Amino acid sequence: MPPKQPITMDDIAALAKVSKPTVSRALSDSPLVNEQTKQHVLSVARKHGYAVNRNAQRLRHKNTNTIGVSIDFRSHRKNHISDPFIFELLAGVSEALGNLNQDLLLCAPNHNDTDSLQTIYSSRGADGFIFLGQGHRESMLNEFALTGAPMVVWGAPRENSPYCVVGSDNLLGGQMAAEYFLKQRRRNFLFVGDPSHCEIQRRRQGLHQAAEKSGKSAILEDVVLSDFSYESAFDAANKHLDQAKSPPDAIFAYSDTAAMAFIRVLVDRGLRVPEDVSVVGYNDIPAAAFFSPRITTVRQDTYQAGKLLVKKLMQILDNKKPRSGTIKTELVVRDT
Amino acid sequence: MPPKQPITMDDIAALAKVSKPTVSRALSDSPLVNEQTKQHVLSVARKHGYAVNRNAQRLRHKNTNTIGVSIDFRSHRKNHISDPFIFELLAGVSEALGNLNQDLLLCAPNHNDTDSLQTIYSSRGADGFIFLGQGHRESMLNEFALTGAPMVVWGAPRENSPYCVVGSDNLLGGQMAAEYFLKQRRRNFLFVGDPSHCEIQRRRQGLHQAAEKSGKSAILEDVVLSDFSYESAFDAANKHLDQAKSPPDAIFAYSDTAAMAFIRVLVDRGLRVPEDVSVVGYNDIPAAAFFSPRITTVRQDTYQAGKLLVKKLMQILDNKKPRSGTIKTELVVRDT
DNA sequence: ACATATTTTGAAATGCATTTCATATGAAAC
DNA sequence: GTTTCATATGAAATGCATTTCAAAATATGT
User: What average pLDDT does this structure show over A79-95?
Assistant: First the structure.
């Protein structure tokens, strides 16, 4: 049974026969306290399982040691995340924050508007925020940036953004997909994704730019998706292939999830992947390597991403103004 | 630019020309304050964007309104979650907590030992904990339960557990898989998973019990996995099929991820799924429905799971002692 | 109009740790 | 043996909101 009356610093002070400030200094490893005293206090504290009350500490320190992490639930169905990539990212961020002893406050789907986040910030629930996914909420993010709360966003880095963005080089990702297709003499390009997402828009742009620059007249078509779920991609694939005059021979999907949905539909219709249609996804989610056929994809290093997001945010908290950053972006060829 | 000097309750009191306690009462919607006064105070507070300092509030209230959520990172590779199921669960919990206005503190991989969690608890970082995945850490959980911290665990419910467990009916899940196989006249059963995980052990037990009870002499074999990753399942599949005298005609995998890895290996070896080998997975992750062939799997309702986990924990926080609970467990047949 | 009950309000105490500032102790310097 | 300095320690103030308790204001009853 734990002690009913929670133990406070006063108790430890009394037990160690020193004053409260001395205990405080000992616990925070201050040089202002004698080494022996420090050890003594520490041992007493340990013996009684004492841990400083974070809330009192935070009240006094005026910081929270907490970072709010907000996920773009709106881009998913029924507020349930359907793309595992975002969780890879979360794991990376979680690890990076843990290494800095920062707490991670996960902002629930119903706390994802400017007001809620602003309240969290001004009530000292978090020192800053990391947004995973710029997606459909650019205007919300712009609005939130005006509040002056420290923030970093996973998304599409670009000039003149009112906040610091970290992301893969989406333009390059699209270009690599195009080059990959061109090398295989594909001509009938289909881009799959929702271009109203700025990250996705850039991927599409990369694909188109590279295709046009090559001089080989490729056909460029789009399938616009309404959210990030398998389901939409699946439905959209069927719909598109039903009415397409000539089926594409090269599909670049904004995510592996979408790529997998398309491949499944293609195979159901008797098309061979990659022989008839070459498909490139994005993110290199774990499933991509084990899907059959294995998916060629653009990998973003989520571990590095988490680290970089956290690093930039810490810089902002130190009153620096870091520039947006790009993480390694590489094509992982698997469908040969 | 936000105000440099953060605004406090005293400021609002002065601005509204009332005393601090009145402001406090108005903001907490206390009946002890006159309705007009309340509205007036509220409007002043809103006008100045005032939000109560959570840390002061929590210090006074002696509660934190925060639940720590701990994920079993050890069961995954390199501390990176490889099975999306756990995230589905996280999303469910996040939503349920959000509905109750509870903050979700995500415990990082390096804060997952008894000491760290105990420190979080006794430093008033969280009122209670939800553990997602019992897995390999039963002894840790038993140890932690002794500290008396309120906790609920996603795992295998059973009698005499020192803590409250919520989970699917793993035994039933295994039985359903067995029945499904038997109906197809399969005889050569392979169980895939790490039986030192108690959840997984029960699934295996369900499979074996039902197989034996049927009277039809089935062959029962195991492939033991070392972690939750695709990779291990993939490697294990190859290794097993290399040395198996007769390949199994029925595989029950502890997760869809593992099922997908096995299917991939089977197909690579020219075996047909489900004609030659029937495969049943677990969890019904989104990818399962879109994998080719679609995977027959045991679905656990993560939304309900999140809700139930949170509900039980709230009961514990109210000093009740809820019994362990089971969520809906059903076979989703897809490979026909 | 007066006593009593009810509703509102505010002063002060409280929760717990940190920081400032002053004091005490011991060491070094003369 | 006094003065000076560095080091170590503690009393009291502080951060911000909530709660207790007493006082004030208002309403009710006769």
Answer: 79
